[in-house]
Amino acid sequence: MYDNDSPIRLTRQQSRAVDRYAIEELGIPGVVLMENAGINAAGAVFDLLRDAFEFEVDEENARIAIVCGGGNNGGDGYVVARQLKCWGMSPVVYAVKPVGELTGDAKVMADAWVSVGGSVVEASEEAAVERVSGEWQVAHVVVDALLGTGYGVEKGGLRGATAAAVRAMAGLVEEDSDGGAEFRGRIVSLDVPSGMDADTGEVAGGTGGGASGGAVRADQTITFVAEKVGFGVAGAEKWLGRVVTADIGLPWDVVEAALAGLEGGPGGGA
């Protein structure tokens, strides 16, 4: 189910076109697509836990940190958290944007997470991220649900709590390689590693004025519908880790129909 065997790679525009077609032409609510994406991503996280830690980790003692941004990628993260809770785990969500300030589908999913008794730690300021990120050091899995395909390098460097969270996740790997505290867990990014441009494979660059560069260096990227064009760029693999694909509840012929109206047709992102 999660083997990455889709025949094309999608651009940012094509990814949006698939969602738009499902919502506007087929009448499938966006929250349904988000729910499907999150449930399938949760399955991939569960598989990773089982494969990486064998019998060391079970549902009761799995330590899972899910770092959620304020957009749809964060909404996916809240669904992942709720589904893992349904399977007997106790993930903790770290909210880079307060739940009360969310809008749209992301708010629906965050509210659903809170309604089922889900744990949320607010980390909406840099100092708060720095204070709580030590908890990620002991996690079996840290899920990066900060930024999705909407980020582009033309927007410049990352800022505020988002930048701090990306630095903290990058620091988990760097501390290990520099001889510091060993991070035995796995970092999983949803759709794309936060800070990576889905079209170009480039990562955020610091542009001054408090902005910072870099991206999350994932052990595994769970990408939705299909790989993104930027994944094929030389050097992107060091940020992506292993790439698996999770569907969003749309048969492939529906995806092709959504792409058919774009310039270049369904293969335009290959």
TrEMBL record:
Record InterPro entries: YjeF_N_dom, YjeF_N_dom_sf
Catalytic activity: (6R)-NADPHX = (6S)-NADPHX; (6R)-NADHX = (6S)-NADHX
E.C. number(s) listed in UniProt: 5.1.99.6
Obligatory cofactor(s): K(+)
SUPFAM superfamilies registered for this protein in UniProt: YjeF N-terminal domain-like
Residues annotated as binding (6S)-NADPHX: N72, N73, G74, G75, D76, D191
Protein known as: NAD(P)H-hydrate epimerase
